[in-house]
Amino acid sequence: MTGRARQPPRIQDVARLSGVSTATVSRALRGLPRVSEATRRRVQGAVDQLGYVASSEASGLAGGRTESVGVIAPYVSRWYFSSVLEGIDAELRSQGFDLVLYNLGGYQQNRSRVVDRAMLRKRIDALLVMCLTLSETEVAALGELHYPTLVIGGTVPGFRSVGIDDDAAATTAMRHLLDLGHRRIAYIGGANEEGMSFDVPETRRAVYIREIAAEGLRPEPGWLQSGAFTVTGAMAAMQRILAAPVRPTAVFAASDEMAFGAISVLRAHGLTVPGDMSVIGIDDHEMSAAMNLTTVAQDPLAQGRLAAAEVLADVTGTDATARQRADRVGKIVTDSHLVRRGSTGVAHPDQGRGRLA
Predict the structure, then answer these.
(1) Where in this chain does the record put each HTH lacI-type domain (predicted)?
(2) CA 29/CA 47 separation, integer angstroms
(3) Which of 50, 271, 312, 321 would disulfide-bridge 266, Cβ 3.0–4.6 Å?
(4) CATH number of 33's domain
(5) Residue 169 dihedral angles phi and psi, to the nearest 5°
(6) Alpha helices in the chain (DSSP H)
(7) Domain that holds residue 113
(8) Which residues sit opposite 252 in a β-bridge?
């Protein structure tokens, strides 16, 4: 018997029969929120009537999902980001999901390539964004995808987020130094790197200025430096601080890695920590105990697990619950606390006057 084989039904046929757009059909079959129960039943009825079978790209497994969660990361080589990724991956694997990584690699041009609907559509069930401040255009583009979306380590208006209270963490670090009697305190922070627009460095720098001002003080020229959140960047920043007209007695570094760079330079100049200068960081990096660094600890691995669990609850929950959860905004605040070690000490009158080697 000859003749053309009957073409299998397409998603366009399902959309036509159910009276909705193909995008709504896709969302209904993938179990995403913001599709009414009546529409979902109508789409399913059309699917059953036509015998439509969604492609693996469009719907993933039988549950209508891809079983994957996307993560946009500005870097993967730095401790905080790699630790968060480890936590995300552990939680996803425990629930049978895969991680799809979109690494910006620190380059702004990669950002427009990744934050594009064509890059993300049909590949994932939810999206996690690490430490980025999104533009209005990017927020709108991600919003059109209707994925459950959550930000880690920062805040973006309109999206949920997970992370420490950066204002509180920086305040803890500054109050520790001030309570030890330090009044000449320098700061090593981060700037807008390659257009990445982190909001965390801005918060920590603002706290430094606020706490200094609360004591009736102001930073001396050369005391506010950018270390680019790297060891080498902080080493250069510490050299500039030591070249300032007035030498501080303490340094607040906005990350432990920058604190490591500062301590390295101080020791290279024959200065002792904390005898000549106290140093405090934020993070509790895996090397912080070995460096005897006083720091304000956070747990990025736990943040990653929590963030992944949050979006998976959106994806795997009932339709009504998923819609309710996905519409929530606000920040889930995780723990941060002071860890006292040997890099900070009480200020004394002669501190900061030692000769440089």
Answers:
(1) 9-63
(2) 9
(3) 271
(4) 1.10.260.40
(5) -65, -45
(6) 11-18, 22-29, 37-50, 56-59, 79-94, 108-114, 117-120, 136-145, 166-179, 200-214, 231-242, 256-268, 300-316, 319-326
(7) 68-164+299-334
(8) 187, 280
- Under the banding of pLDDT at 50, 70 and 90, the label for residue 60 is very low
Decide: 234 and 262 in contact? Cβ < 8 Å: yes
Query: 220: domain CATH number?
Result: 3.40.50.2300
Distance between terminal CA atoms of the chain? Answer: 95
28 domain residue, yes or no: yes
| Whether residues 314 and 284 fall in one domain | no
Q: Taking 80 as the threshold, does the pLDDT of residue 205 lie above it? A: yes
Q: Is the dihedral of CA 225, 226, 227, 229 positive or negative?
A: positive
What value does the mean pLDDT of the chain take?
85
Query: Is residue 348 in some structural domain?
Result: no
Q: Which two tokens stand for residue 121?
A: 């559509």
- Model pLDDT, residue 196: 52
Residue 94 tokens, joined: 């425990």
Distance of CA 150 to the CA centre of its chain: 9
Torsion of the alpha carbons at 143, 145, 150 and 156, rounded to the nearest 10: -20
Tokens standing for 110?
Answer: 């990669």
The upper half-sphere exposure of residue 88, i.e. CA atoms within 13 Å in the direction of its Cβ, equals 30
Longest Cα pair distance anywhere in the chain, in angstroms? 102
> Rounded to an integer, what distance in angstroms lies between the CA atom of residue 314 and that of residue 298?
25
**306 and 276 belong to one structural domain:** no
> Which among 222, 225, 211 has a CA at the least distance from the CA of 171?
211
CA dist 210 and 217 (Å) reads: 10
Residues 175 and 188 in one domain: yes
Two structure tokens written together for 262 = 């500062």
* Distances 12 to 24, 46, 252 between C-alpha atoms, Å: 11, 11, 59
